Amino acid sequence: MEQELRLNEFKALYKTWKTNIPYLDHLLLGVLVFIENVLINNRVKVELDEAIEEWEDTLPPPPPPIYTETPSATSTRLPEMRLRAPWVVGTDDTVEGR
Questions:
Q1: How far apart (Å, rounded) are the C-alpha atoms in residues 82 and 91?
Q2: pTM of the model
Q3: Could you give the CA distance from residue 35 to residue 29 in angstroms, rounded to a whole number?
Q4: What is the pLDDT of residues 24-63, one digit of tens each?
Q5: Rounded distance, CA 45 to CA 89, Å?
Q6: Fewest Cβ atoms nearer than 10 Å: which of 53, 73, 81, 98?
């Protein structure tokens, strides 16, 4: 795989620092490619984190959960308490097939 520089700033640095000694030029190119990859990955991570944070700020707050309390069929002293998410459709809290 051939190493190539992608950013113009790094291409200019390589042209400026090039020594016409093949092994030094190859070492310089490898170092610049590594630094460039780290820089690009860092920029992408920061931009994505900022975009996600901005997007999360625009979301409406979630609705509160629904608590229900009904008399228990098995115990006379303790009521049966249920917690249900508000986006669940239906009034029956039991799931069929269980």
A1: 12
A2: 0.58
A3: 10
A4: 999 999 999 999 999 999 999 999 999 999 998 888 888 8
A5: 38
A6: 98
What is the per-residue pLDDT across 55-78, written as a single tens digit (0 to 9) for each? 988 888 888 988 888 887 777 778
Residues with Cβ within 8 Å of 35's Cβ and at least 6 positions away in sequence, in order, are: 10
What sign does the CA torsion over 66, 67, 71, 75 have?
positive
User: 2: pLDDT confidence band, cut at 50, 70 and 90?
Assistant: low
**Percent helix, strand and coil across the chain, each rounded to 5?**
50, 10, 40
Q: Which of 34, 26, 28, 27 is nearest to 6 (CA)?
A: 34
- Residue 96 has a pLDDT of 45
Tokens of 9: 């700033």
Give the C-alpha separation, 85 to 18, whole Å. Answer: 64
